[in-house]
Amino acid sequence: MKTRNLKILLVDYSIFTACRLQELLGGAGNQIIFKISTDIDNALSVMDTFQPDFVIVEIGMPEKSGIELLKYIKENKLLTKVIVLTHFTISSYRNECEKFGADYFLDKSDEMENVLSIIKNCVAA
């Protein structure tokens, strides 16, 4: 049975996060097309042409918050799952992300490995 290509957009300024996620997602069992944006404006321009299945976003970005990207995705009813992966895990950020429709909210320091199981479960559903 042929697996379909998954398109994932990572929006983060951290090279470590990008490398770690690429390593983790190698075990997804699908062909991954992985793009990285290091700022929100670039991510917004990539969204239209790339049309990712998943966006993994850090909310603590320079210049604009990742919450702006989350709002854009949900307000425009884009068919992409949003995984917030951040060090900013206090309840007010979590609540704001839930309010604006984040599908998942993970602590970057100890839940990064959960990204793979989330993607596998979504693909299997």
Quick gist of this model?
The protein has 125 residues and is of the alpha/beta class. The protein has 5 helices and 5 strands, in the order E-H-E-H-E-H-E-H-E-H. The chain has helices spanning 15-25, 40-50, 66-75, 91-99, 114-124; strands spanning 6-11, 32-37, 54-57, 81-86, 104-107.
Structure description:
With 125 residues, the chain is α/β, with parallel strands linked by helices. It has one domain: Response regulator (Rossmann fold, 3-Layer(aba) Sandwich). It is 42% helix and 21% strand. It contains 5 helices and 5 strands. The chain has helices at 15-25, 40-50, 66-75, 91-99, 114-124; strands at 6-11, 32-37, 54-57, 81-86, 104-107. Strands 2-1-3-4-5 form a 5-stranded parallel β-sheet, with helices on both faces. The model has no long low-confidence stretch (mean pLDDT 90).
Oligomer: single chain
- Strand percentage: 15-25%
Record the strand order, biggest sheet.
2-1-3-4-5
What is the mean predicted local confidence, pLDDT? 90
Order of helices and strands: EHEHEHEHEH
Q: Please give the number of β-strands.
A: 5
In CATH terms, what is the architecture? 3-Layer(aba) Sandwich
Number of helices: 5
Radius of gyration: 13 Å
The CATH superfamily appears as Response regulator
Report the structural category.
alpha/beta
Q: Separation of termini? A: 16 Å
Fraction in helix: 40-55%
Spans of 5+ residues with little confidence (pLDDT < 50)?
Answer: none
Q: Give the tally of structural domains.
A: 1
Shape: globular
Largest sheet: 5 strands, parallel
CATH topology: Rossmann fold
CATH C-level class is: Alpha Beta
